[in-house]
Automatic annotation (TrEMBL), chain B:
Subcellular location: Cell membrane; Membrane
Native source species: Chenggangzhangella methanolivorans
GO terms under cellular component: ATP-binding cassette (ABC) transporter complex
Phylogenetic classification of the source organism: Bacteria, Pseudomonadati, Pseudomonadota, Alphaproteobacteria, Hyphomicrobiales
Membrane topology summary: Multi-pass membrane protein
Keywords: Membrane, Transmembrane, Transmembrane helix, Transport
Protein name per its UniProtKB record: Metal ABC transporter permease
Amino acid sequence: MGRVVSAASAIRLDDVTLGYDRHPAVHHLTGEIAPGALLAVVGPNGAGKSTLLKGLVGTLKPLGGRIDRGALKVREIAYLPQAAALDRSFPIDVFDLVSTGLWRRRGLFGGLSKGDRATVAEAIASVGLSGFERRQIGTLSGGQLQRALFARLALQDAAVILLDEPFAAIDAKTVSDLLELVARWRAETRTVVAVLHDLETVRRAFPETLLLARRQVAWGPTSEALRPERLLEARGMQEAFDDHAPVCAVDHAA
Amino acid sequence: MTPYDALVAPFVEFDFMRRALVGSLALSVGSAPIGVFLMLRRMSLAGDAMAHAILPGAAVGFLVAGLSLPAMTIGGLAAGVAVAVLAGLLTRTSVLKEDAALAAFYLLSLALGVTLVSLKGSNVDLLNVLFGSVLALDDDALFLLAGVSSLTLLTLAALYRSLVLECVDPGFLASVSRSGGPTHFVFLGLVVLNLVAGFQALGTLLSVGIMMLPAASAAFWSARLSGMFVAAIAVGALASLFGLLGSYHTGVPSGPAIVLAAGALYLVSIAFGASAGLVWRLLPARRHRAA
């Protein structure tokens, strides 16, 4: 690895509102995710963090505003959903699961060459799972499965990587190993956006932060975005949908 | 009775027994892997629903042309595909989950089918449609069974990656490829095709037996997908053999006999399956390894 991925276009958000049934989960986001950015998305539960990722990856259409991906195609975005909707009882082993990361290169029918097998083995080794190749995924611990999913992400060779709470219920050793991988992606000028809860991790490893509380509280350098008064402001957010809420005032002003 | 008389002689002496054996073996080879995928997708009962859905199509064929293989096959295929596609579309575009959509359509379809069959024809004919006639397979029926079985294996091989990924991690598949939806429909098409082929031999209601029972048995023999396919096909083939022999020696109808044999093998698998059989749990636990 260690190669440089051709810089993708920036992702621009222009007054983006995302939500369900006319209720915004998060509204009026404006900003730019630069190519090669390493952005943490932080905020209380229900702040719209996962919703934002779904919007970025294109599975959720904005209720308002525009997401401009430039030349970037949706399929060039790799996305690791929260506690992946993976059927862990399915009989498939680690090697086969990780090798599906090569889909974009091998497609539906293409066979795995000897070189591909070596690449997959290398990816498995890079997340510290050597020796687990033939283990069924049902026998892995949560952390081990997350390592395998990171190996698959690495194989996807995507210009933009979205991670939704990748470190939930994962021990410190695994987190630091996986963060090393994230740092390597950054060195390869891939864009990484991660939803995170642990502010220590964010301060340590993520130069840029978006603080969400169903709206944009702060977006900028991590030390700025995570100032105590900002965090306090984010905590005061209204969480429940209100069926009788008036039409958003910002829309009226526009 | 010598073992030769019991196990081999019926097939040596009677042409119809050989045909029945060839037909039901072909059926097992195609249907068992389909059953494994249905089971792993938690759609075990969907096969049953589809089997019922096929009835009105076969009945229309029967009304138009009597007990004619092509007419009933085409009718069954049309009805099965219609129900599968309708249920699939409804699932993907509305709030209904696939099991609910299928349940609704197959019940409609079944009621329609029974009505149609009862409009014309005696109850004997109805029994023929419902329970099949594996002992009366002609050349056309055998070619149909073998053709469907071959087509099934080739299609499964071609779609294997997409099918597996659609089961394990549908979200990921959707993020890298658009093949998930088409794969699902082609797979449902294969289910219908195998059930239609199966009802020549076992009848509409029991054809799903040679699909699901071997698959459910296979789960006790292997924890790996490849092993499950082999085990399912083996159970299907053995059930065909034992069922036909049992039917020959005792005079019970052959279709139910084959499914009963599959059921017996299922019980054996639950108890003694090499991978997850219950009996092994009763043995004193072996001491665990150091790592």
